[in-house]
Amino acid sequence: MKTLFTLLACFTLVTGTLSAQLPKPTTDIKGIITGIVIDNADKKPIEYANVAVYSLPDSVLVTGTITETTGKFEISGLSDGSYYIIVNYIGYNRVTIPSVKIDKENKRPDCGTISLKENNLEVGEVVVSAEKSELQYKVDKKVINVSKKLSAVGGTVANALENTPSVQVDAEGNVSIRGSQNFTVLIDGKPSALKGNDALKQIPASAVENVEVITNPSAKYDPDGTSGIVNIIMKKEYKTGTSGIINASAGTRNKYSGDFTLNYRTDKVNYFFGGNYGNRPMYPKSFNESRVTKNDTISYVLQSADRLQGMNSYAIKGGMDYYISQKTTLSVSGDYGYWGFFMNMDSKTHEYSLPVTSDIYFFNTSKMDIGGQYYNINATYDTEFAKKGHKLTATATFSDWNGHQDNNINIQESVFDFSTLNSIDFSKTLQNSHTTDYRAKLDYVYPISEKSKIEAGYQGRYELLLGEYNKFTYDNSITDWVENTESANNFEFYRNIQAAYANYSGEISKVQFQLGLRGEYSDRNLNQITTNTQYPVNRIDLFPTFHASYSITPQQSIQASYSKRVNRPQPWNLNPFPMYSDNYIVQTGNPLLLPEFTDSYELNYMRYLKMGFISAETYYKQTNNAYSQTLNYNSNDDKVYISTDNLDKNFSYGIELSGNLKPAAWVNIYASANLYSYNVSGNIVSENIKTQSLNSDFVLNTTFTLKQVNRLQLSGFYNAPKVTSQGLQSEMFGINFSASRDFFKRQLTVVLSARDIFQTMKYQFEATTPDLHTNFRFEMESPVIMLSLSYKINNYKQRKQDEGIQNNMGGGGIM
Question: What is the CA radius of gyration of the chain?
Answer without folding.
Answer: 29
